[in-house]
Structures are given as structure tokens and as C-alpha cells.
Amino acid sequence: MLHAVRVGLAMLVSILVTSGIHVPNGIWASVTVLVVIGGLQHHGNIRKKATDRALGTTLGALVGLLLIAQLHFIGSMPFHYVLLSIAAGVCGYYAIGNAGYIALLTAITICIVAGHGDSTIATGLWRTLNVLIGIAIALAFSFALPLYATYSWRYLLARNLRDCARIRARIARGQPLDVEGHVAAFAALNGRLVKLRSLMPSVAKEIDIPVKRLEAIQRLHRSTLSALEMMSTSAALHPAAAGGADDAYADRAALLTMARALRFGSESRAGQRLAARIPGAGAGHSNDDGERGEGGVRIAPDDILPGPRWIAGWFAEQVDALRGLLGDTERHWHIEGDAAARAQMHRPH
Predict the structure, then answer these.
(1) What is the tens place of the pLDDT at every residue in 41-85?
(2) Total structural domains in the chain?
(3) Does 323 lie in the same domain as 225?
């Protein structure tokens, strides 16, 4: 809803600005607003797209003005068409690479500015100005009414972790999900997992974190869900082997700690909560699961390895690893801390 309001207001402002100062061809400012923010709601993507748009527009405008100048000094229309086609071909070559959006916008701007030989230098300059006005308006609204993918990523992950804690508690109480409940619960968990992946590129741009770190969190999250799904299936078949109450308490406490830190941010002092050790968390459920080898890695007997308690131990290890990784990256995704620090710096002493 906020995105729809933002796009509508940005469009209105572009119309008022270009009409108010009587800028010719003002429609191109409105078109640019739609291109930059129309299909992108998150701040990180808008900022990147506006930068690409500005660079592509600048390159396209310069080439377009050179083509118009050629018409004025040489006056060859066939030569103009050949140069326009060559420019389009070069842009098309780069459009399939990493800078594809910039190349595509360069080609579009060349056509807008130069036209088919019927444009003047003044017309080309006005069209270039309109595009830059549209970029400025789009950026202004993305900063004034920002929608951060980071919050969506945090809230979705927190919801999944909270649901995992609920399912883990039910397994420990000997009340595993029935078949229909199991299918519905894990369909919802996996659906949010897919949404989290789609948000990762925007989150990486917004909080200046390598995508590989987010991939590591995603991988641990996926492993946790896989272990929990096996536990839920196994608990329905072997309720007595679902795991001890102490083990379940540590798992549930760690999951809820992560969920609160992600959901409430500064109010929950995310870093302190995640850094605190949960009694029993990641202990590996070693009381019945055999000896430990070098480095404390658990070595389970052959008759225990495929069983429910081994799965419970694996689940606990994944939860503890996820808690540690979220704690390590907290300074990036805990963006309320940055806002609080800025407010503290500007507060009069």
C-alpha cells in the first residue's frame, strides 16, 4: 500500500514540476519516475536502479547529442541512420552482460534524444533534463518514504524461527503434528524460505553485507527446517524417542531468542541476546548419543545414527550455528542501531 501511495505521489510531483516550470516534453520525467520506482519497492534496489538510470541516461544523452551535431555539421541522414544502428548494436552487445540495464537505457536514451533525424540539439537537451528530473524525484521519494527489504527479511525469518520453536515444543510434549498439520506448517515455512531468498540481493545492498553471508544464514535456516521436518515425521512414528524436555527447552529458547532479536531489534538488544549462551544449546544431546571424537564432534553408534535422537542432535547443532551467525552479522542487519547512533550524535548536549 505504501509503495502504491509513493508511486502515485511521485507521479503527481513530476507532473506539477514539469508543468509548473513549463518544461517541454515533460512526459519523459513521469516515464522515468515509473521506470525507476514503479516495479521496485525496496530502497536498495531503487537506489541501484536510479544510479544505473542516471549513468545510462548520461551516456545516451551524450551520444544522442553527438548524432544530432552530425546532422547539423555533415547533414547526412543515411549516415545518421548507420550511426544510430551501430550504437544500438553496441548497446545490445553489452545488454546481455552485468551492465545490461545501463546499456539498455543508453540505447533507449539515444533514440529519445537523437530521434530519426528530426530532433534539434535543444530538444535533446530538454529530454535529457526531463529524465534527470524524473530520477531526482524518484530518489527523493525513495528516501522520504523508504521501504527496507531488511525489515521484511528479518520479520519473515523471525516468524519462521518462532514457528520452529512451536513445532519443537509440540514434539517434546509428545504431541507431534498430524499429517495435514505437518503439510500445512512446512508449506508455510518453505514458502517464507523462498521469499527470504528473493529479498537477499536488496538486503545486501541496503546493509552493506556480502551476499555470501546471507547465503550462509539461508543455508543454515534451510538445514534447520530439514532437520525439524524429519523430527516431526519421526515423532509421529516414534513419540517415545522424540527427545528429552531439557533438550527441547534449550532448542526452543535459542529459537525464540533469535526471533525476538530479529523482530524487535534495538528494544531487545539484539547483539547481547544473541551473544548470550543458552544453557544446553548446541550440546549435541550427548547423554545417550555415544562418544565424541577429535574436536568434540559427536560419534554416534550405528544403531543410534539414523534414529530420532540423532536428528534432534543435528537440529540443535544447526540452531546453535544459526544463532552464532546471526550474532556475528547483527551489526549489519540491526539497522535501528545505526539510526539510534545518528540520533545520539545530533542530540544537543
Answers:
(1) 566 666 677 778 778 888 988 898 888 888 888 878 888 899 999
(2) 2
(3) yes
Please, are residues 153 and 203 in contact by the beta-carbon 8 Å criterion?
yes
Q: Is the pTM of this model over 0.70?
A: no
105-109, 182-186, 281-285, 292-296 — which is least confidently predicted? 292-296
Number of H helices, E strands in the chain: 14, 2
Domain boundary among 123, 144, 165: 144
Closest to 211 measured CA to CA, from 153, 258, 171: 153
Which range of residues forms the domain containing residue 52?
2-144
Helices 308-328, 245-264: crossing angle, 10 deg rounding: 30
Q: Are residues 122 and 256 in the same domain?
A: no
**∠ CA 313-318-324 to the nearest 5 degrees?**
130
Q: How many CA atoms are closer than 13 Å to the CA of 60, on its beta-carbon side?
A: 29
Identify the bridge partners of residue 299 per DSSP, sorted by sequence position.
291
Q: What is the structure's pLDDT at 278?
A: 52
Stated length of the chain: 349
